[in-house]
Amino acid sequence: MKNNNSKGLSAILTRDVYLTRLITLMAIWMIFMAIFKFDSFYSIINYQTMAAQFPEYGLMALGIMLCMITGGIDLSVVGVANFASIVTGMLLKAMVDPSGELPLIGIPAAILGGLLVGAAAGALNGFLISKIRIPPILCTLGSYELFTGIAILFTKGKAISGFPAAYSATIAGKLFNIIPMQLVFFVIMAAILAFLLNRTTYGTKLYMLGTNMNAAKFSGLKTDRLLIKTYMLSGICAALGGVVMLANYNSARADYGTVYTLQCVLIVVLGGVSTVGGKGRISGVVLAICLLQMLSSGLNRFPQVSSFFIPLIWGGVLIIIMVLNHFTENKKIKSPKAIIKVLNGQKM
Amino acid sequence: MPIILKKLTQRNETYIFLVILVLSFLIEFRSGQFFTPNNIVDIASAMIVPGLFAIGTFMVIVSGGIDVSFPALASLSVYATTSTLFDAKYSGNMWLPIVMALAIGALLGAVNGILIAAFNLPPLIVTLGTSSIFRGFMLGVLGAKQMPVIPKGMSTFGTSSLFVAKNAQSGLTSRMPVAILALIFVLVIAYLILYRTMFGRGIYAIGGNETSAFRAGFNVRQIKFLLYVGVGIISSLAGLIRVCMMTQDHPTNMLGMEMMIIAGVVLGGTAITGGAGSLTGCMLGTALIVIVQNSLILLGVPTFWQGFFLGMLILIGTGVSASQVMRSSNMSKLRKTRRAL
Questions:
Q1: pLDDT, tens digit, for every residue of A153-183?
Q2: Would you say the ipTM is above 0.85?
Q3: Contact A152 B304 (CB under 8 A)
Q4: Is the residue at A28 inside a domain?
């Protein structure tokens, strides 16, 4: 798993209470699993399965994280992912030549097509949010309906399948026979975003935009363009999630993965990204993704716990974390002025 | 008269009403089936459940919050009520189920209320979380399965009708369910609360500016708490009516309705940022969504266009109102600068 243990773990732990909490939770869960289900949980196969599962929604969560840092949210990720996976699937089917063979360029071209759809969808979101000023929640709710609607139009509501086997074999295959390709996609995307957020002016601008939109505007940032770029990135992340989804299920449908929306928001909040924007680290989000996957995979090892308990547990964890955050943040607040600031800040 | 006209043109409700009018004439023109007694009654009866949900959602949005947990909340409270009564072989009338469902709804609403009002957590995230909890509780702990039979009192209530409308040409008939009275009743109560009580003014005040409302002496926390309890009650009533009208309980079939309801409320001119909006607009917006859902088929549009149309409707509707807000704020800024000069 990805940990920031390279430079002084203790320094990071004291600096970031969210990370500490996530690492603690993860450690507790790992010890718990070690005691009760050591053999089935601590096996290479289990970790491979987990690493193949989480990139689907992990990629979408990364996109939501970017939008939430700007103070917005992207609820259309699942719609974009399905739309992109359907387009990728259709491209794949279209490129098969009469002999049933897929040309070498086929897979990259189809994926590129999917990513372009994601970028276009994200750009539409960004345009509506920045230029028309539709509140992000509403805009992305509406565009979720729209993208799903278009996807239904494309497929007439049915699942499409029967793609060349090479696609699934490549994307859902294993690198060097050990690392799942899905994980590679996720790591590359996460690395790109980490670089963008921490090492470029784009990242700095993003945090500034999220902290105070007006201040950002008056200090000369082109906020509209920045927002469009961010939602485009989120669309690309979601589309990549869709590409992975297509390989995992070997079929595409307009209504796959509808539970992921909630799950991704949960992950991002769990990862310590502030819902009002301006705060949040990619390391926290990645940790939260891993924690969630371990929780659900771990729970699967207990046959007596029905899978229906998983939403209950996730919801519970989310609420508990938020209440905990409330108390840790309130410790800092003493003066009445600060309380009023929080009152204002917490408004939707 | 011109003053009234001018006032009307400034209101969102007028436009949404015109859109409904145009749409219905279009459907009438294409199919000749829209303005028939049975179709009108059908639409009215399809309005009951979304209408009730919309009233609750409307109040929350006006207060500057948002609630996406109401379908899960309603499903849970109704399933708990129905299955308990069914297991107890309940054979009485409708009142006990109503009281039970509303009590559970109030309790679940209070959970939302405490988290949002006492801990001051963002409503979207809280209700996303509780929605997941309610669903998990219903499916996991209660082990909810489809109930093909519900207690007799409930199904009798669901199928009893006020009157029956008949289409003279086609001979099709539609029943106006008694449950429409519940919608009217809740609508009147909501109207009285919102526009005739301090509590209602408080909801608008909090939505406008929470700090100002607090300074003006409103008990912000109490109002918010009671508001979410109220939404729990209204949503449970809506869920109960839905189950009664279907005469069976699909526990998961209400989930996912939240987006549509919120879209309807916002289409009706309610500001998503809170503080502005009217019950009339909220009902009109919901009616528009219901008409689109029910009548596209009359237009000869295949059903898989529905999602596309709804998405477009939401984006265009919210886009228009957002640009209106932008224009009006630009105007007031302009006026201010002029005064300053």
A1: 888 878 887 777 777 777 777 777 778 888 8
A2: no
A3: yes
A4: yes
Q: Return the SS3 of B147.
A: strand
pLDDT, tens digit, for every residue of B154-177? 888 878 877 777 777 777 777 888
Residue B283's SS3 state is helix
Domains and CATH numbers, chain B: 2-304 (1.10.3470)
| Short-list B103, B59, B58, CA closest to B80 | B103
Residues of A in contact with B121 (CB under 8 A): 322-323, 326, 346
Chain pair A-B, CB pairs under 8 angstroms: 171
Residues 291-310 of B with CB under 8 A from A: 304-310
User: Model-level pTM?
Assistant: 0.81
Q: Is residue A336 part of a domain?
A: no
Distance CA A14, CA B26 (A): 65
- Give the Å distances, CA to CA, from A103 to A96, A115, A167, A170, A174: 7, 19, 11, 14, 21
Residue range of the domain that includes A275: 9-310
**How close is the nearest chain A Cα to the Cα of B111, in Å?**
11
10-residue averages of pLDDT along chain A (348 residues): 49 65 82 76 77 87 91 89 90 76 77 91 91 83 87 83 76 74 88 89 87 84 88 92 87 80 83 81 88 82 74 82 74 51 49
CA distance A160 to B176: 41
Contact A317, A324 (CB under 8 A): no
> Any alpha helices (H) in B216-257, and if so which ranges?
220-246
A320 contacts in chain B (CB < 8 Å)? none
How sure is the predictor about B323, in pLDDT bands with cuts at 50, 70 and 90?
confident
Q: State the Cα torsion B54-B57-B61-B67 to the nearest 10°.
A: -150
Contact A133 B140 (CB under 8 A): no
Q: Amino acid identity of B164?
A: V
- Residue corresponding to tokens 């994601």: A118
Residues of B in contact with A137 (CB under 8 A): 66, 124, 272
**Structurally, how many domains does chain A consist of?**
1
Residue A249 lies in a domain: yes
Note whether A151 and A83 are within 8 A (CB).
yes
Task: Kindly list the distances between the CA atom of residue A263 and the CA atoms of A174, A318, A348, B147, in Å, as whole numbers in the listed order.
Answer: 26, 10, 20, 28
Decide if A348 is inside a domain: no
Asked whether the beta carbons of residue A312 and residue B130 sit closer than 8 angstroms, the reply is no
Instruction: Read off the CATH number of the domain in which A177 is found.
Output: 1.10.3470
Contact B308 A137 (CB under 8 A): no
Is residue B290 within 8 Å of B66, Cβ to Cβ? no
